[in-house]
Specification:
Blueprint: H1 13-22, H2 26-39, H3 44-48, H4 55-68, H5 87-99, H6 103-106, H7 113-124, H8 130-139, H9 156-165
Helix pairs in contact: 1-2, 7-8
Length: 170
């Protein structure tokens, strides 16, 4: 027979169940209920079954919970490729985009994705495709839309007159 699970001293079943009911994430709530069942004296298998886990998964959850608390019950981040830009690089890129360019020093005013890719290549020595940068920019909360271009010699009075009368001449 398996040895009894050791639990933290500050944990009791009523508090565990109450916090599981308040929990928004279903997986975390199920793990908390399984821990509460195990605290009540159920075996690992009996306590884990209603939560949809096996007894080894319950044991692992209890060990992690004892070490670090409720925060680790939500699970580990999913594996995958690391982000292309670090947090610091992303913050610097965001600041560059929000500040804008100086047309006298840097030429054109617009910040298109291909231009930003060139800036990233120069400053961070990382090559990105504009489609990849588009996803990064959207995740960081910036818009990828450009403003409508305005001709420097456009006449505001003529535009207003055209909008009032259409194509008719005065």
């Amino acid at each position: 027979m398996a040895a009894a699970l050791p639990f933290r001293e500050d944990l009791n079943t009523s508090e565990s169940r109450a916090s599981a009911r308040r929990e928004r994430k279903r997986r975390v709530a199920a793990r908390m209920f399984a821990i509460a069942h195990a605290l009540d004296g159920m075996s690992r298998g009996e306590a884990a079954r209603p939560a949809g886990m096996d007894r080894q998964a319950l044991r692992d959850a209890v060990v992690r919970y004892n070490a670090e608390g409720v925060a680790v019950l939500s699970g580990r981040p999913p594996p995958g490729r690391p982000e292309w830009l670090s947090e610091g690089e992303l913050a610097r890129l965001k600041a560059m985009v929000l500040v804008g360019r100086d047309p006298k020093r840097q030429g054109c005013e617009e910040r298109t994705l291909p231009i930003l890719c060139e800036v990233i290549a120069e400053r961070f020595a990382k090559m990105l495709h504009p489609a990849s940068l588009s996803r990064i920019v959207r995740r960081s909360g910036l818009l990828t839309q450009k403003t409508r271009p305005r001709h420097p010699q456009s006449d505001a009075k003529a535009q207003a007159a055209f909008q009032k009368r259409g194509c008719a001449k005065p």
